[in-house]
What does this fold into?
Amino acid sequence: MKYILLVHVPKEAYDAPQDPAEVAAGRAYGAALHAAGVFVAGAGLESPQNSTTVSVRDGQRQVQDGPYAETKEYLAGFVIIDVPNLDAAIEWAARNPSAAQRPVEVRPLGGNYFATATGK
It folds into this structure.
């Protein structure tokens, strides 16, 4: 079963310099995910100020620079893991270094609408 682990951080976190200890902890966590064979995909995200939001209304494309909504926290990164069950996903979320400072959301992935005809 695949789960996504979502890390949200306050807006100010994007302006703060990266703590070398946090970077090292993140790399160690990634290495542990790989070593356990549960890592599927993951990445940190740039500041929401660098985002572009696209929508289509009445057939017209609308493009907005910057974050879609003002909020206190923004999605900072994600990890997709393939584990047997929710309990295992929760264990990996608890091991995420960010969990010591902020919640890590665990959410099961839904159907794969972008699978090829062969199902891969």
